[in-house]
Write a structure and sequence with these properties.
2 domains; binds zinc ion
């Protein structure tokens, strides 16, 4: 979890501290031909002090030649896919970049953008970034940004699991080529994306152009405000509550994405810590294929400060502890995006393992 970077060491000079602060990493993903490199071209122009890691299948990468002249350093991960065949090269590449930066051998940079191949599963890449301690001490995952092709995105979501996963784990969705697609199909695709991933804002991108601020500070930790922003990060209200068999009172739409569900679970009373850990471990280990993503702010029995949890399949981020509750609401709130898993099953599991009382919005109404 992009918990707040450690307390700054007063004995170090400002520039030294800046040089040592963990750098934000943005994972830019999206299906084949959805416009990742076009967006990247725009970002290298508008975000100069950026290092680019570009993943290409071919031994002699082509895409990187499409990248215009850029100020920051660029590294190529070629000859395979960073989520699987060459996943082992991500950490060493980041280490080399960091070391070269520390020594001043390359132009300095203050963030990294990793562009995956179009068929990459973002989850193993997140796993890599989070579970290499050396990397995690120096690079902080700021967000997953996914490009979705307004022209072909619908079909790609139908046919390719990777496309669905790329959308489900995104913190921000960039809808590209809207100028080429009929307005009504763009509107339908937008709705579909909002159902698949309620918390991810959707930004329309024409010719790769977007406000660079739109892809920054997407995680829990906002480097600009130097605070943990749970409400902005979770957007809990956008999720339907998990209610037996129904979502928000309406029968579930028999749409393409019938297998994917996004829902929330609210537990009214404080949770038993070990019960909670067992429930999460159960889901992340035995149901990792079904658990695409979850976020939670939880009230742990006997603890006065809230804890924030975040996981993507089997990848559990280290828990973050807030200094105080962001508002008067002391209930534990979970949001989930799952595939082939009943919301009621997840809600019951949490309730049974933690012994907490469940909030039933339909009864409150
Ligand atoms: Zn792969």
């Amino acid at each position: 979890m992009d918990a707040p970077p450690g307390k700054p060491d007063p004995t170090r000079s400002e520039s030294r501290r800046e040089l040592d602060a963990p750098l934000p990493v943005t994972l830019l993903t999206g299906f084949l031909g959805s416009g990742k490199t076009t967006v990247l071209n725009h970002l290298v122009r508008t975000l100069p002090r950026t290092a680019i890691l570009m993943n290409e299948f071919g031994k002699v990468g082509l895409d990187h030649q499409l990248l215009q002249k850029m100020e920051g350093p660029m590294a190529l991960l070629s000859g395979g896919c960073v989520c699987c065949t060459i996943s082992g090269s991500l950490s060493p590449t980041l280490k080399n970049l960091w070391m070269a930066r520390q020594k001043g051998d390359i132009p300095s940079f203050e963030r990294v953008i990793i562009e995956t191949t179009g068929v990459a599963d973002p989850v193993p890449v997140l796993d890599n970034l989070l579970h290499d301690n050396w990397v995690r001490a120096r690079f902080r995952l700021d967000g997953v940004v996914t490009t979705v092709d307004a022209l072909f995105g619908d079909g790609q979501l139908d046919q390719h699991d990777e496309a669905v996963k790329q959308v489900a784990v995104a913190d921000k969705l960039l809808l590209t080529k809207t100028d080429l697609a009929p307005a009504d199909s763009v509107a339908m695709l937008r709705e579909r994306l909002a159902t698949l991933n309620p918390a991810a804002d959707i930004v329309t991108v024409a010719h790769g152009e977007l406000d660079p601020a739109a892809i920054q500070n997407l995680g829990l930790w906002n480097a600009k405000t130097k605070s943990l922003e749970v409400a902005r990060w979770m957007k809990h209200q956008r999720y339907h509550p998990a209610s037996a068999g129904k979502l928000g009172g309406k029968p579930r739409p028999q749409s393409h994405d019938a297998r994917i569900q996004a829902f929330s679970v609210v537990l009214d009373t404080p949770l038993d810590r070990y019960g909670l850990q067992s429930a999460i471990a159960m889901l992340a280990s035995f149901r990792s294929e079904n658990l695409l993503r979850f976020k939670a702010i939880v009230n742990i029995e006997g603890e006065d400060r809230p804890v924030v949890l975040h996981g993507v399949q089997h990848v559990l981020y280290p828990e973050a502890r807030l200094d105080a509750w962001p508002d008067d609401d002391r209930r534990s709130r979970f949001v989930f995006i799952v595939r082939d898993l009943e919301p009621e099953f997840v809600a019951r599991l949490l309730q049974d393992f933690t012994g907490a009382a469940r909030h039933h919005p339909e009864q409150a109404a």
